[in-house]
């Protein structure tokens, strides 16, 4: 479904996954990660563009990105995806064929996975229902992102199964600002 208006977003903590997790203590603590790459695409299927800095707008997304502009391809179900993140460690594992879920290593570059932010040292699966800071921006973890067959078609690579359960995190923006590669990432809650 391609739209000329922004998709119907759900506040991150109001999403079913986020609202359940926010009431439960736990998750990984004591870590500090790093933002390694920022990417946006102005519309669905467009090539991802690397940015040296990005303006994040609370309740909307990254200026110039398909989620901000409402020019992406969306499920008709409301969701939170103002910003999407993926771990560099997951990409490194694909490159090692770890676990061996395909015929050999898959090299996925930071712009290939179609997530906005590539991070290192950040346990994304533990951030559902949690607030965390990327540089000066505060994000709210909404739900885990799942790989899709569409990504396999775009890349021409069998990434669905190897990315299952490590395909990133969809987030809302609580407090906007400018982010840059190299910014520290830390848990707030």
Automatic annotation (TrEMBL):
Q: Which taxonomic lineage is given here?
A: Bacteria, Pseudomonadati, Pseudomonadota, Alphaproteobacteria, Hyphomicrobiales
Q: What is this protein called?
A: MOSC domain-containing protein
> What residue range is the signal peptide?
none
User: Could you cite one Gene Ontology molecular function of this protein?
Assistant: pyridoxal phosphate binding
Which source organism?
A: Methylobacterium radiotolerans (strain ATCC 27329 / DSM 1819 / JCM 2831 / NBRC 15690 / NCIMB 10815 / 0-1)
Q: Which Pfam families match?
A: MOSC
Extract the InterPro entries matched here.
MoCF_Sase_C, MOSC_domain, Pyrv_Knase-like_insert_dom_sf
Q: Which UniProt keywords apply?
A: Plasmid
The MOSC domain, residue ranges: 49-188
């Amino acid at each position: 479904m391609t739209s000329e208006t922004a998709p119907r977003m759900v506040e991150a903590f109001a999403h079913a996954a986020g609202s359940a997790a926010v009431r439960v203590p736990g998750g990984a603590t004591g870590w500090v990660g790093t933002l390694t790459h920022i990417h946006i695409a102005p519309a669905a299927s467009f090539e991802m563009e690397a940015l040296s800095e990005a303006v994040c707008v609370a309740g909307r997304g990254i200026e110039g990105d398909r989620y901000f502009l409402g020019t992406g391809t969306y499920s008709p179900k409301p969701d939170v995806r103002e910003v999407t993140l993926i771990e560099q460690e997951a990409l490194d594992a694909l490159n090692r064929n770890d676990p061996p879920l395909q015929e050999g290593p898959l090299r996925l570059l930071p712009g290939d996975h179609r997530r906005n932010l590539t991070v290192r040292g950040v346990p994304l699966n533990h951030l559902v229902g949690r607030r965390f800071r990327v540089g000066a921006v505060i994000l709210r973890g909404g739900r885990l992102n799942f790989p899709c067959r569409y990504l396999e078609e775009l890349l021409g690579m069998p990434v669905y199964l190897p990315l299952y359960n490590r395909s990133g995190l969809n987030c809302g923006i609580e407090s906007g600002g400018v982010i840059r590669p190299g910014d520290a990432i830390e848990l707030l809650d």
